[in-house]
Design goal:
Blueprint: H1 2-6, H2 12-30, H3 35-48, H4 56-60, H5 69-76
Length: 82
Amino acid sequence: MTRKNAGGSHNGKTAGDAAVTWTVTATAQMAGLNLITYLTAYLDECGRNGGKPLSGKALERFFPWNAGPEDLQAWAKPPPPG
């Protein structure tokens, strides 16, 4: 149903969104991050930002090449059980 509503592979925006998602997740994996932990941290921060996407320094913190060692260590761990 969603594929029909979104236009499937014939929708350029859908293809672009998929490319961004794959790029972000592949970059996180190459940096040794746990995807669930990393994306949860990012989405939690978006929630603290009024439910809006991050920008500027707040977003740059989540680029693995800009992240501090503490963040990288935290994001590499598996999510807590439950």
